[in-house]
Amino acid sequence: MTYTRQADFGTPASNAEQTVTLSIDGRAITVPAGTSVMRAAAENGTDIPKLCATDSLESFGSCRLCLVEIDGARGTPASCTTPVAEGMVVHTHTPRLQQLRKGVMELYLSDHPADCPDCTTGECEIRGQAQAAGVDTVRYGPGADHLEVPLDCTNPYFDFNPAACIVCSRCVRACDEVQGTFALTIEGRGFKSKVSAGTADDDFLSSECVSCGACVQACPTGALQEKAVAEIGAPDRSAITTCAYCGVGCTFRAEMKGDQLVRMVPWKEGKANRGHSCVKGRFAWGYATHRERILNPMIRESIDQPWREVSWEEAFAYAASELKRIQTQYGRLSIGGITSSRCTNEETFLVQKLVRQGFGNNNVDTCARVCHSPTGYGLKTTFGTSAGTQDFDSVEHADVMLVIGANPTDGHPVFASRMKQRLRAKNGQAGAKLIVIDPRRIDMVHSPHIEAAHHLPLRPGTNVAVLTAMAHVIVTEGLADEAFIRERCDWDEYQDWADFVSRPQHSPEFLAPVTGVDPAELRDAARLYATGGNAAIYYGLGVTEHSQGSSTVMAIANLAMATGNIGRPGVGVNPLRGQNNVQGACDMGSFPHELSGYRHISDAETRRLFEQDWGVHLDSEPGLRIPNMLDAAVDGVFKAIYIQGEDILQSDPNTSHVAAGLSAMECVIVHDLFLNETANYAHIFLPGSTFLEKDGTFTNAERRIQPVRKVMEPLNGLADWEVTQELARALDLDWNYAHPSEIMDEIARLTPTFAGVSFARLDELGSIQWPANDAAPKGTPVMHIDGFVRGLGKFVVTDYVPTDEKTGPRFPLLLTTGRILSHYNVGAQTRRTANTAWHPEDRLEIHPQDAEDRGVRDGDWVRLASRSGETTLRALITDRVAPGVVYTTFHHPATQANVVTTDYSDWATNCPEYKVTAVQVIPSNGPTDWQEDYEALSERSRRIAGAEAAE
């Protein structure tokens, strides 16, 4: 955990298979063709001075520090822009080069403040490069123009000091090449040139900058400095870990000074993020030490009482006694648990084990069912596995991307940056084509330097109809890949499916009144997907959170199989998971009907494997899902629940129903970081630990199992896996795990897809994509290469069935929901950081025509009402949504957007239909009675005995 900088080789690595041998300073060196002279030297221990060069960016050649001499070549070329050649003879340090570099370095130092704070701490590269160039005195005076420019301190996380800027363009290039936002530019000339965040009136906060941190990381001086580094000081130790936000699973180096986290730096070797980050993972970690975090266990007999802080021992004893009492009084099936998609695989595995082994039933569920269970059902039915088919690197080989029901720039921003890189033409390679199927004009439809070839703004709830219409075009126009289908799929099932989609009632023209999509545009999109080369499908919650979510996933799989777009890089079916460990929560057996590895609880052989390992009889009947638990609670037969790291009151549909179920229970145990909305109804609160305080693993959207490493000791005293273990011990279970690695060993011996996974193996390889076993010891980046896991691919007829949620005179608009870049899920973490600067409240997006019809102006309070409930929020008038459609986020509990969503759900998995709610919008003058009552309830529920007196 000692602090060392990650090596920087100056320019990106070459992927060429052919090699070149050259001589550098008298040493023979062999490197891949296309490697720069600078990188060839660095990889072999020779550092050439540089300022504009860094290996996360393409070579630029502006600083002129990296000059070299090459036998037979004129002048002194820049080593960063000069590729190696066979037999080349390079000299990197000669008297001539030394003199040239000194002159260049003196000019840079003349334009850099002598009292630069980063220079004294070693954070500024310019002093180190000056020493490498042998410069200790400067003949020129300072460049006064830069020193007079004021600081830009508007960004919550970093400051821009133009006086320290040397105009190397690294920040501008990082914004362009890595992030793809193009928010920065260089304006002016000579000593008057400077970095600009847009127009003359813009600053970093008001500009198009998305605060990903790429510019800060690229800056070689103190011009862009993180506020935390300025406040705490330079780090002195670090550890590699995995981000705990979205399903991309970025790898970071957590850099510490003592026991304080200074910064999170994206790790270049991270296979999911390749050295990039977003505003959440890079900067929004302050919640870990937020004053509202609960660090002591608390109990209360009823929810109208204030909380009472107790010891861990008393909390565990009280929780166990209540669970035992309730089961004795109401029966074995009267209690259950919910696992977390924010916790590690090991912690999630223990919760479902606690329910099955300790509670003696299968009443366990997870938020993964609330968002992506149709993915599991649909892909297991068609392909044989409940997960996406590709790794993220596969996007580099895609010629066509179809994005449906996903908003990558907001929900999965780091992967979105990689998508944007592929969409732009680069190094002579044509950019990929993009098809977006979404009711809303997301940023991927149009943003700097990218433009979707087709945007199909469908009516919410008609995904199946649109995909069936695309299939109609592909089949009737002879665009299907018959050779692939005959070899890899069930031909009879394909013929049945092809006959179904070919019917006239499934044509784009016939379905246009249903979908709202222009038939000609849809036909062109279908043709592009079928004939445009490697075609990859990426989808999100706009696919799964529907009454036909499972049908839509199978319709997507049908398209991929029909066109042969499966089983190689650049193609596939790729669900973009929402939370950091949604995939892992599913893998670990968090559903009431499945054990780890997606094996049904009714399978006697699978059950016997666990029974022998755990020494207990397992119930063969599936347990209750979350909505069934709530229903049973209202009916008086379900009385206690243990909730690990989930805020079901804010995140689950129909908030009033969730509240009714929770209030009907006699023992609600919440295990979390903060007194969240669900804790309003809790009797026992067990403080949780952050990802910085634990060891374990997360599994991201590409099935990549990655290490989570403890950076600091848990502020609450226990990691989450230890909390669950102590609760199990209080229930008389003989659990004695000493470290999460032992839990992973148990997972591996009980789960075939994880058979080759261990902490030692992860330390060796960095990460592993399951399945990892004897057949694939290093994991499986791309699935279904030679054949489908289930054998032959299965085509499934997916008839369009309209949702039961209908618009009408009372509720004429359709509400759909989603996320925004700066916040994460219910906002419990990001709302406790400076990210609120960008999104302090949920807003209702409404089309100008709908707003005018209702007399609503931008920023007005409006009442959003459905058949389930109502809430108020401010309006945002925008043509990003179509007429008849409104949109909002769900990050702020003051809004409680889910008070209006319904109980309708996917026919196969009970995944809630968040994306289609019939609503009315009318002007309002402030919060509803329900909101005011809820706020009062929250204040009463969060009282802690003694806290008022202490304040």
UniProtKB/TrEMBL annotation:
Domain 4Fe-4S Mo/W bis-MGD-type: 236-292
The protein's name: Formate dehydrogenase subunit alpha
Keywords assigned by UniProt, alphabetized: 2Fe-2S, 4Fe-4S, Iron, Iron-sulfur, Membrane, Metal-binding, NAD, Oxidoreductase, Repeat, Translocase
Native organism taxonomy: Bacteria, Pseudomonadati, Pseudomonadota, Alphaproteobacteria, Sphingomonadales
Family listed: Belongs to the complex I 75 kDa subunit family.
Gene Ontology MF annotations: 2 iron, 2 sulfur cluster binding; 4 iron, 4 sulfur cluster binding; formate dehydrogenase (NAD+) activity; metal ion binding; molybdopterin cofactor binding; NADH dehydrogenase activity
2Fe-2S ferredoxin-type domain ranges (all copies): 18-96
Gene Ontology BP annotations: formate metabolic process; respiratory electron transport chain
